[in-house]
Amino acid sequence: PRALADPVEPPFCGTDRISKGPWVASVDGTTAIVRWETCVPGPTSLSLTPEAGGDARTVEGTTSSHEVLTKVKAILPDRGADLPGTWFLHEARLDSLAPSTCYAYQAAGEAGGRFCTARSPGQDLRFAFIADTNPGLAIESISKLFTTVADFRPDLTLHGGDMQYYSSGLEPYAWWFGATAPLLRSGVMWPAVGNHESEKTDEFTDYYERFWGGIGRDNVGHSYHFDSAGVHFFSLNTEESLETGSPQFTWASQQLAAATTQPGYRFSVVFFHRPLATCGDSDELEAARPALQPLFKASHVRLVLNGHMHGYERFDLDGTSCIVAGGGGGLIGDIDANAQRPLCGQRQAHGAFTHVVTFELTGTTLTGKAIDAKGETRDTFTLTVP
User: What count of Cα atoms within 13 Å lies in the side-chain half-sphere of residue 326?
Assistant: First the structure.
């Protein structure tokens, strides 16, 4: 299999080679879902081996077809196009996995990656956060962020939305999957819905929903929940209302409260696209914030992760650390454009640079690092957690 840190050239349609992926769509303590796409019916088998060594096993997946009606072409000829036609999504559902174990896999005898099953409560945990990935603008530098994640070897990666940008004219999904291969193959990636997931007619159903739908548990719409190492993660959708009385707010209130009663519960992390607070040149959740802040405090949410504003900010909002980390590839914005906003006095760090944020949970200490495209650490912080 190709090395995890290598970019992947998109194949020509008309072969049974993988056209998009593979990627790990979901994991828990004993199961995982791996998906990949071909443009003609192709093999559905997946081989699996524990990274620490052991017997290999082969799993046969299932295939579903989807008709794409719209062609979207990149402005650069070598970036290809997302073509209309029938596309085949393959899904291997893996069961009877060992908890707290990392596996290497190979899909259809061709492309491979890794993932780790959920950690048991109390164990150490490594995860990364990235948002607003627009590698088509500067693939040489942005690919270094993806390599940073791959080298970090996380248990999981959170994506804060705006995964791909048709608006740039530079990255159809056919090219995007190859460019982001080091990120996708480094482990499971859990996304949140961003505003750029719906730029073209049927884009959301043709791509985002088909590739990342039906993941996690306790879902309502495209919000969902999962846990690892006693940490509970909640993905919310800021393209729908989060104000008091909305279905999503009601769901989040119930699920956050229920999580605190689970055996081995430590704390919660909530991630979504539009920021709870920002001093930069984007909107913030001003209308929903009066309800969300006390909900997060009452529910032991120690970390809120957002994108949308293309820069880096870290706030302390009444004991909840809020990180805006929308520097995953989009054009860096003006991080002080709205410095007069009320919560800007609580901003503890900020910077105008592309970046990814890594987190290491060891015992009762959670350490975060904002790392730029040169591999330099631009901000480090620690939180004391249960």
Answer: 34
The DSSP H or E segment spanning 320 is: strand 320-325
In whole angstroms, give the CA distance from residue 274 to residue 289: 11
What sign does the dihedral 271-193-173-68 (CA atoms) show?
positive
| Residue 40 confidence (pLDDT) above 90 | no
Judge whether 135 and 141 are in contact, CB under 8 Å: no
Record the tokens describing residue 376, joined without a space. 């330099």
- Other residues' Cβ atoms within 10 Å of the Cβ of residue 64: 10
Question: Residue 221 — pLDDT band, cuts 50, 70, 90?
Answer: confident
Instruction: Convert the pLDDT of each residue in 88-109 to its tens digit.
Output: 999 999 999 999 999 999 998 8
User: Which among 146, 53, 56 has a CA at the least distance from the CA of 101?
Assistant: 53
What tens digit of pLDDT does each residue of 60-78 get?
A: 999 999 999 999 999 998 8
Tokens in use for 225?
Answer: 């929940």
Question: Per the structure, how many domains does the chain have?
Answer: 1
Whole-prediction pTM? 0.95
Is residue 374 exposed (0-12), middle (13-18) or buried (19+ Cβ within 10 Å)?
exposed
**Can you give the residue range of the structural domain that contains 219?**
1-386
The CATH number assigned to the domain holding 155 equals 3.60.21.10
> Which residue has tokens 């790990």?
24
Token pair in block for residue 136: 């088509």
